Amino acid sequence: MKRTAAALLAAVAALASLTACSSSDSNDDKPAAPPYKITKQDASGNQRQVTVEVTSTKDLRAVFDDVADKLTDDAGYFVEINCATGGTAKADNRLANGKKAVGNIGAAATGLDDGKTQFEEQPGAKCPA
Questions:
Q1: pLDDT tens for each residue of 63-72
Q2: DSSP H or E segment with residue 37
Q3: pLDDT in tens, 23-57
Q4: Structure pTM?
Q5: Which of 42-56, 79-93, 111-125 has the lowest mean pLDDT?
Q6: How far is CA 14 from the centre of its chain?
Q7: HEC profile for 66-127?
Q8: What distance in Å separates the CA atoms of residue 83 and residue 57, rounded to the nearest whole number?
Q9: Whole-number Å distance between alpha carbons of 36 and 89
C-alpha cells in the first residue's frame, strides 16, 4: 500500500511539472500595457503624429509597444506619451517619445529601418497626483 501511494504521488508530481511547462504564450514576454488614451492620431501622410495620455509613469515602454503594434499603414509614426495631468494649454507634460517606421516611406521619414522602433523616456518626468 505504501508503494502504491508513493508511486501515485510521484506520478502526480511528474504530471504537475509537465503541465506547468507545457504552455508558452509569445505575449508573455511583454508586460501588459497600463490604461492609456489616444488623444490624437493622424490618419494620412508620410509622417504621422500619435499623442497618448496616461495617468502614471508606470510601464511607459509597454504603452508605447502596445500603440506601436497597432500602427500598420506605410508611414513614419511619431508617438508622444503625455501625462493626463500637469500640462497646460501651451505645454504638455511629456513623459516619453517614440517613433516607428512602417515601409520604405516610414524608414525615410524616421531614419529607422522598416519595422523598427525607437523609444525614450524623459529623465525625471512625473505625473502629478
A1: 999 999 999 9
A2: strand 37-41
A3: 334 445 667 889 999 999 999 999 999 999 999 99
A4: 0.73
A5: 79-93
A6: 36
A7: HHHHCCCCCEEEEEEEEECCCCCCCCCCEEEEEEEEEHHHHHHHHCCCCCCEEEEECCCCCC
A8: 8
A9: 20
Q: What's the residue count for the chain?
A: 129
Give the Å distances, CA to CA, from 20 to 16, 25, 28, 32, 58: 6, 13, 14, 21, 29
Contact present, 53 and 34 (Cβ < 8 Å): no
Q: Which residue type does 48 have?
A: R
CA dihedral 50, 33, 64, 82 (to 10 degrees): 60
Residue with cell 513614419: 76
